[in-house]
Design a protein that fits this description.
Helix content is 48%, strand content 9%. With 328 residues, the protein is an alpha/beta fold. It has one domain (79-279, 287-326). A 5-stranded mixed beta sheet has the order 2-1-3-6-7, sandwiched between helices. Strands 4-5 form a two-stranded antiparallel ribbon. Strand 4 (199-200) and strand 5 (203-204) form a beta hairpin. Helix 1 (9-27) packs across helix 2 (32-52). The longest helix has 25 residues, at 254-278. It is globular, with a radius of gyration of 33 Å.
């Protein structure tokens, strides 16, 4: 016989709720169990996202040093000795001159190959840049690099300077935020300094060199940026490096370079022991060892000075004449 439904009103309401949820689940292709727990899971997910969400920060606030205002730069800087670097191997010709006129200065060595400059392989050039040179520049120490050119008989300006050193300075400015770089403004820093252009023998080549920088490997970029952690707050935000050069007289003479280098190392070693014994390490403290004083002395010794492509007046005149001829 037909048995009459004996469900209570409460049970009827519960059954209706389950049927309704099942109907909604089927319309959304979900099982009733999933539908029953969907709201709960969605609520937990929202709470989880809120917990994981990191506080918003400005992505541009990286380790790149922030340029100092002029008021901070006006503070009297500590006097730093000029560091002398010989670019192997033609730069070895400068050793006898340095030993005679800068007898108490330690000489450092580096290598920036002219053959890599000829190929425009800036990746390898920057990978070979000496760590000592990078650390000196990062700590605001003035540096002089010596090399002897073999191509341009008129000037003797080596390719390692007008191409290699010029490009290296651009990469360091860009990654370290020096000389107008490191700000959102394309015109330069907030303190009014404009970005320095890359000038290669009278031609503006900033875009070309920047294009090379964009293809740098991650390992190279990591190497350059590594030295940012050593930049002091009192840094002038300028690269104090120049090139001193002459025309070579011994290009290709391997025996000369080997004998000259080893003779210098022997003399330096014996002189160092003698000075240590006599206690005369500081006998030249009264001399002016500023970068400009070194430049003046080097010019008197017949060296020409490379300050950067955008500091060569002859090249700047070439840019002006080229611009006027094109009507720009």
């Amino acid at each position: 016989m037909y048995k009459k439904d004996t469900k209570t009103p409460h049970n009827n309401e519960r059954a209706l709720t389950i049927i309704t949820m099942a109907t909604l689940a089927s319309s959304h292709f979900l099982s009733p169990v999933v539908a029953a727990s969907s709201f709960h899971r969605r609520h937990l997910c929202q709470r989880s996202r809120k917990r994981k969400r990191a506080p918003t920060t400005n992505k541009k606030s990286s380790n790149r040093p922030i340029p100092l205002p002029l008021s901070a730069l006006s503070i009297e800087e500590e006097k730093q000795d000029v560091s002398h670097f010989i670019n192997l191997k033609n730069g070895i010709e400068a050793l006898p001159v340095l030993r005679e006129h800068f007898p108490h200065k330690q000489i450092h060595f580096m290598r920036m190959q002219s053959t890599l400059c000829e190929r425009g392989d800036m990746e390898k050039i920057m990978l070979e840049v000496d760590a000592n040179l990078l650390l000196k520049l990062a700590t605001d120490a003035p540096c002089v690099i010596y090399d002897y050119g073999s191509r341009s008989e008129e000037t003797g300006l080596p390719r390692s300077f007008w191409y290699g050193l010029e490009s290296m300075m651009y990469f360091l400015r860009h990654e370290w935020g020096f000389d107008g770089y490191g700000e959102e403004d394309d015109d330069g820093c907030k303190d009014g300094r404009r970005r320095r252009e890359v000038v290669l023998r009278g031609k503006k080549c900033t875009k070309e060199i920047e294009r090379k920088r964009t293809f740098f490997s991650k390992s190279l970029k990591k190497k350059i940026r590594y030295y940012r952690q050593f930049i002091p707050e009192t840094h002038s935000r300028e690269l104090k490096v120049i090139g001193a050069y002459k025309f070579t007289a011994h290009d290709g003479d391997r025996e000369y370079y080997k004998e000259t280098l080893n003779e210098h190392l022997r003399i330096q070693s014996s002189t160092s022991r003698s000075r240590s014994h006599d206690g005369n390490q500081n006998d030249d403290n009264g001399d002016d060892d500023s970068l400009e004083a070194n430049i003046e002395k080097l010019e008197q010794l017949g060296f020409k000075i490379f300050r950067g492509g955008d500091r060569e007046q002859e090249w700047l005149d070439m840019i002006k004449s080229s611009s006027s001829s094109t009507g720009t």
